[in-house]
Amino acid sequence: MANDASSAGADGGMKGDDYKYKNRVADSMPPDEWGYYIKECVSFVASRLANMGVNANLFSHLGNGRDWVNASVPHSKTPKVGDVAVYAAGSEFGNHVSMVTGVQGNKISGEEYNWNGDHKYHTYHGRNASGATTFLDFGKSINAKTKEIATNSPLAKLIKKQTGGMLGWIQKFIAPLNDSSTGEDGNVQSWADDVKKALSKLNLSTSGSMVQRVLRQINTESGGNPKAKQPGADPDGDGSGPALGLMQTKRSTFNANALAGHKNIFNGYDNILAGLNYARKRYGDNLSFLGNGHGYANGGLITRHQFAEIGENNQPEMIIPLDAMKSSRGFELLGKTAVAMAARDGQNNTTVTTDNSKLESKLDNMISLLSQLVAGQGNQVVQAIVDRNDLYRKQANDVNLWDYQSLI
Question: Which long-range contacts (CB under 8 A, 24 or more apart) does 140-143 make?
Answer without folding.
Answer: 140/49, 140/52, 140/53, 140/54, 140/82, 141/80, 141/81, 141/82, 141/83, 142/80, 142/81, 142/82, 143/80, 143/81
